[in-house]
Amino acid sequence: MGLKTRADYLKSLKGMRPNIYKFGELIEDVTAHAATRRTVESHARGFDASHDPKYAQDFSTVSSFTGEKIHRWNSMMETLEDIMGNSKLKRWMYRFTGSCNGGLCVGWNAQNVMWNVTALIDKECGTHYQERLKKWILGAQEKGLVVAGALTDAKGDRSLRPSQQADPDSNVHVKEVRKDGIVISGTKAMICGVAASNEIFILPGSGYRDEDKDYAVVVVVPRDIEGLTIVETRRPSDTREMEDGFDIPEMGITQAFLFFQDCFVPNERVFMCQEAKFAGKVIEYFTANYRACIGACVAGQGDVMIGAGALMARTNGLAAATFSAKMVEMAVNNETTYCMGIGAMALGKKGPGGMWVADSLTAHTNKVHVATLPYETKRLCQDIGGGVVETGCFPSSKDFNDPKYGHLVRKALQASAKFSAETRARAARLSEWLTLGAGVPGCMHGGGSPDGAKLVVRAFTPVNEFADYARKIAGITEEVPEPEKKK
């Protein structure tokens, strides 16, 4: 059965080979270590929701292959309703955790994208990638796997193509093709949720030319594959996450660098190998779906920011209604990104393999909003909370509870007599964490850069066609083309 419990999930992580480092330390148990336990807890809440009657319909579904009940994040997105389920799950997860849950997100999108792309490759090249992919998906559904996804390469010199780099390991590439599999090396950077994942789906970071064919590789590997070293990167909350107390919640996300050093991947886990022509299709389909769905992520966190603002108002001694105008602005921002993503899905269609692909123009436009509107929501959340929610304006949990002077700190932080100083402290720290910590990096570059999204919007906006509509409405009978470029 594919519907696993929190206990099943935690057990699966505990059984993995330690290969994650932070602050020079090998993390032996990701479920218990201070640097990783919060992201594990966030993902575990997805398993809880799968068994909760209130949320089960959004967190579980039926396998289109077997008819068995499975976690939704292991499912195929064949219909508009299926892909809308992706957004619903994301918004719920942010409401539960306040932060990203990459292991219930990127690998899910990757398997659906590759179902479409392997259909194209198999048809043109006579390969059997989709058959391999189906076997892997069936296993992921049966085991209830949490699967991170890795696209972004370290890249190296941005003016050079991957094959021109002085260090070939600046991008993940095929180093050797064997009869029974391939050997890969290279670096993927800024990858979400790896510490909480069972496996990692590796996709190309860009479209490639024939001379870059070694970089056109798609594989899925166990997180603890031999030859992979993972380094958890610093986050704004690093100095606090190693301590107990209320300074940050018991949920969160981590980012990581993945260093592949001569990793052998057997054929059954290889779904693209040097077919450079199709790498661009991976990016096209992936970004369309991901940038549609990410609108739900920032909306879900925005919902929590409205709630955090309400808590701060009340613990400060004011009614939340005092800030209703600001909260309406926050709600409008949330619904803009969420509904624009849903719109991109509704304007989409089935891809060549039968899985749904969102409309690229609308999805990438949504990404531009995702990189702007949440920052305004964060500003409003800080505005409502007052100066106490800003970094540097609030004593630590350790100071709050210090036996010598903690009573003075608690006395200073007491506001409304209806609520304890600790309740106000926790509310303030949550607002700070939401606006200056956990969610900020994912808004700007999560799912790709806004500048990259604007390039897609530019490419898909038919300016000449629109100018023709305007010309006819204006009653202009002569053609009005672009001026010729000066030589």
Automatic annotation (TrEMBL):
Gene3D superfamilies: 4-hydroxybutyryl-coa dehydratase, domain 1 (1.10.3140.10), Butyryl-CoA Dehydrogenase, subunit A, domain 2 (2.40.110.10), Butyryl-CoA Dehydrogenase, subunit A, domain 3 (1.20.140.10)
Pfam family, one: HpaB
UniProt signal peptide: none
Molecular function GO labels: oxidoreductase activity, acting on the CH-CH group of donors
Superkingdom: Bacteria
Domain HpaB/PvcC/4-BUDH N-terminal: 5-272
HpaB/PvcC/4-BUDH C-terminal domain span: 279-475
InterPro entries tied to this protein: Acyl-CoA_Oxase/DH_mid-dom_sf, AcylCo_DH-like_C, AcylCoA_DH/oxidase_NM_dom_sf, HpaB/PvcC/4-BUDH, HpaB/PvcC/4-BUDH_C, HpaB/PvcC/4-BUDH_N
PANTHER family: 4-HYDROXYPHENYLACETATE 3-MONOOXYGENASE-RELATED
Keyword NAD tagged: no
Source organism (scientific name): Syntrophobacter fumaroxidans (strain DSM 10017 / MPOB)
Keyword field: FAD, Flavoprotein, Oxidoreductase
Protein name: 4-hydroxyphenylacetate 3-hydroxylase
